[in-house]
């Protein structure tokens, strides 16, 4: 090997071994193998040599080239590994540190209220059931004894999907039907969820939330309904002597039907819940209509029961003094900081 090439090899090896980052190594690679690189230049010179010389020198240069390439590869791996470990070190999470305070995110009062309501009913033995937001006419209306042409359909301001075969459920009552198609009585279910009506003003949003209840068993009567709802209202509003009254009403899926009012009074301009002489309507209820049971193939001579439905936003506004319905869905972080609930607060309550 010519002295010159030997020197060059040593020089390049030293450069590679001194490289301390990938960028540096890359520039060495170009310096050696680039268009006018140290080795490239030698390769170019081969063409001017005699065939014999070319063979001998060519082999020498090729050997050097292979050796340097290998060194470059090895160094590349070492530098790469180093950079990864450095990065990992920087990004390491100390899991022994105490958790960050949870003041950066809050639960919407809707989530909180649903958790509170379902928890109270769970303690009374109700199980949570869910149904789809996109319903069909049969489950949302017909099976609930609201046949086509029934005036109640007009009251519901239904959002229909493209070809009218599906709709956005206008209430959570279809979960009664869906559950009875799957489970036979006796049963007690509580069904929270989103509901939709084409209505939007100060006191209506096109999407809102309801919670449905259904209890079916042998020998269930109106007094069970009264006791259950009174216990719920008093526990939810945390007022032991809260007046609760049942006012006759009409719903196609219950007979008899009632609306439930709770006691309230005006304190300055605010409405407060409690014993004060005035009444506030909060939910609908009744004994499940025998036609509904028939649609669900439940023997109404054997099983009876009660159902109820309550609006979540209204409960939340009354309990937590939230003045404006629309604010629930504006995603205003300042509002959420004011009216929202910490996750830990929620866990403690439950
Ligand atoms: N589905 C009714 C509504 O949206 C609420 C309701 C009333 C549900 C009475 C019931 C009930 O289960 O028994 O207005």
Report how far the terminal alpha carbons are from each other: 84 Å
CATH architecture name of the largest domain: 2-Layer Sandwich
| Quaternary structure classification | single chain
> What name is given to the CATH topology of the largest domain?
BirA Bifunctional Protein, domain 2
Q: Estimate the strand proportion.
A: 15-25%
Low-confidence stretches: none
User: What is the top-level CATH class of the largest domain?
Assistant: Alpha Beta
Overall morphology: elongated
**Order of SSEs:** HHHHHEEHHEHEEHEEEEHEHHH
Structural account:
There is one protein chain. The chain has 350 residues and is an alpha+beta fold. It has two domains: 2-91; 107-349, 2-Layer Sandwich (BirA Bifunctional Protein, domain 2), CATH 3.30.930. It has helices at 3-18, 22-33, 38-45, 51-91, 109-123, 137-140, 151-155, 174-182, 222-236, 290-295, 312-320, 333-339, 343-349; strands at 127-128, 134-136, 166-168, 187-196, 207-217, 244-251, 254-267, 270-273, 278-288, 304-311. The strands form two sheets. Strands 1, 4, 5, 6, 7, 8, 9 and 10 form an eight-stranded mixed beta sheet that branches. A hairpin with a 2-residue loop joins strand 7 (254-267) and strand 8. Helix 1 packs parallel to helix 4 and helix 5 (109-123) packs across helix 11 (312-320). It is elongated. The model has no long low-confidence stretch (mean pLDDT 91). The structure holds 3,4-dihydroxyphenylalanine.
């Amino acid at each position: 090997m010519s002295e010159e090439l030997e020197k060059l090899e040593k020089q390049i090896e030293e450069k590679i071994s001194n490289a301390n980052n990938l960028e540096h190594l890359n520039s060495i690679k170009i310096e050696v193998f680039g268009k006018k690189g140290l080795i490239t230049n030698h390769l170019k010179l081969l063409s001017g040599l005699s065939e014999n010389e070319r063979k001998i020198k060519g082999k020498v240069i090729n050997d050097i080239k292979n050796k340097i390439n290998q060194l470059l590869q090895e160094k590349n791996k070492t530098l790469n590994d180093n950079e990864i470990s450095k990065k990992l070190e920087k990004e390491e999470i100390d899991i022994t540190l105490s958790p960050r305070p949870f003041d950066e995110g809050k639960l919407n009062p809707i989530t909180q209220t649903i958790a509170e309501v379902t928890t109270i009913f769970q303690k009374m033995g109700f199980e949570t059931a869910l149904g789809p937001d996109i319903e069909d006419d049969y489950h949302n209306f017909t099976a609930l004894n609201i046949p086509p042409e029934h005036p109640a359909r007009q009251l519901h301001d239904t959002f229909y999907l493209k070809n009218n075969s599906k709709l956005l459920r206008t209430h959570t009552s279809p979960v009664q039907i869906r559950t009875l198609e799957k489970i036979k009585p006796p049963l007690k279910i509580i069904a929270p969820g989103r509901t939709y009506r084409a209505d939007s003003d100060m006191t209506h949003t096109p999407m809102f939330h309801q919670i449905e209840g259904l209890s079916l068993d042998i020998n269930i009567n109106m007094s069970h309904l009264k006791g259950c709802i009174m216990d719920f209202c008093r526990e939810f509003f945390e007022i032991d002597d809260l007046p609760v009254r049942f006012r006759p009403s009409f719903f196609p899926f219950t007979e008899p039907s009632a609306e439930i009012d709770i006691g309230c009074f005006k304190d300055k301009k605010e409405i407060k819940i409690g014993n004060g002489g005035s009444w506030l309507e909060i939910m609908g209820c009744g004994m499940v209509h025998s036609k509904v049971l028939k649609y669900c193939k439940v023997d109404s001579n054997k099983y009876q029961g009660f159902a109820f439905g309550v609006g979540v936003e209204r409960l939340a506004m009354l309990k937590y003094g939230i003045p404006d319905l629309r604010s629930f869905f504006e995603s205003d972080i300042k509002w959420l900081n004011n009216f929202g609930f910490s996750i830990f607060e929620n866990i403690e309550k439950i």
